Each structure stands twice: as C-alpha cells, then as structure tokens.
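Good day; I would like, with your permission, to put a structural problem before you. What I wish to show you is a protein chain and, alongside it, a tokenised description of its three-dimensional fold. Please examine both parts with care and let me know of anything in them that strikes you as inconsistent. Thank you for your consideration; the sequence and its tokens are set out here:

***
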Amino acid sequence: MSPAPTDLLHFTERGSGKPLLLVHGLMVTGEMFGAVVEALAARHRVIIPDLRGHGRSRGLPPPYTATQLAADLARLLDHLAIDATAVLGYSHGGAIAQQLVLDYPGLCERLVLVCSYAYNMATWREWVEGHVMPPALQVMGMRRLARLVAGHAAPQLGCERTDWLASLMADQDARAMASAWKAAMAFDSRSRLAEVACPTLVVAAANDQAVPFHHARMLHAGIPGSRLVVIDAADHALIWTHPEELGRLVGDFLGA
C-alpha cells in the first residue's frame, strides 16, 4: 500500500457498511463525535476527519475557506475510493458539508445538518460576535477562551464533559482558529440552497443560542424537500446532552 499523501486530512474510521462522513465545527476536532460514533458505526463505515488547521490536521496551511475545506474532504473520499457517501455536518461543519454538496454534488447521497446555518452573520448580534472573536482569540489565547466558552455549557454538560471540551478547544492553534473564524464569517450559501438535490435532514436545538433557530428555518425553507426536526430542551451542545436522540434521528434518516 502506498503511503497517504502528506497534504491529506488526518482521519479515523469506525464500523462498516455504507459510508458516513462526519464534519466537525470550529475550534474542535473529529473527537467531538465520540458520543454518537458507536451508534452510527453499528450500521455505517464512519469516516471522521480533522479539518484543515484543526487537531491532527493543523499542519495543513491556510486558507480555511469553505471551498478549500470541502476540496480537502473530496480529496479524502477519493483517497478512500468512496464514490458517494452520506454526510453529517455539525455547526460550522454543516456549512462545509453544504459546500461539499454544492461543489461535488455527486459525492453526497444524503445530508444531515445539525445546529448549522447558511449564513452566520444574519443578525446584528451575530455580526458583532463574529468580528469580536478573532481578536479575542489572539489576545486571550486558546486556553483562556476555551474555559470561557466551555463554561457557558457547564450546567448542561457537567464538570467532566466541560473540562474535556475546554481541553479539546485549548489544544488548537489560536492563529489558525482566528483565520478559520474569519473564513467562517464569509460563508454564505443562501443563494444556492435550492441546488441541494440530495435528501436533507435539518436538526435544530430549541434553546440554541450559538446558532439560533432562525438558521434552521432558513435551511429548511431553502433546501427543496428537506425535513426539519427540533430537539426540545436542547442547546448547541445537544450532541453531548442528547446523543441517543440525535443518533436515533440520524440512523432513521439514513436508513430510510
């Protein structure tokens, strides 16, 4: 077997069956899916990459645009000889998943967008938060910012999970994350949502403050034939607070 290309994303695999690509969000890694991997891998070959600039793919240089990150995923699938796959994107990972579908429509058989968006600068609050975060990353550093961000989720996650999340975020490179955040602010798929032709499930959390519900409505309204499911009493951390429900929703949709 020839060695993997040096510019290939780092990835792990679990399970067997039809492929399922999991795409993580900003400032974390593929490890974020640990709570649902076992359930998904029971019926799927689950591929879990670290996006460019994140985790064990941090050595890959900018840009961190959605176009580049989607191209990285397409290259990974080609390396694995996967012609088509289901794709699940979480938070900003959902934006990258949309870009993958739009740029490489034949690669995606089914699409799941969890706590995600088409355009994350849609309100004044989002615009302010988006422009404050990159300099905050540079000034505070990843460790302090990670404790602050993870601390907001502590009441829902508990101490052990909160500490783990803070550690995962703190391990990222602040300069790369600031660049990735700026690239995320530039993402805007609103005018192209109607081009998404594969069956699509949009999952929203009723109490999501990071990606409020109006984003899920926008995705659902824009993607033809999409299905929208709202998980009550959940917020942006639903993958850890409601893993069984999320796993069941995704499994039923992929098996439909």
The longest strand covers residues 108-114. The helical segments are 34-41, 66-79, 92-103, 124-170, 174-185, 213-222, 238-241, 243-255. The chain is about 45% helix and 15% strand. The CA atoms of residues 113 and 218 lie 12 Å apart.
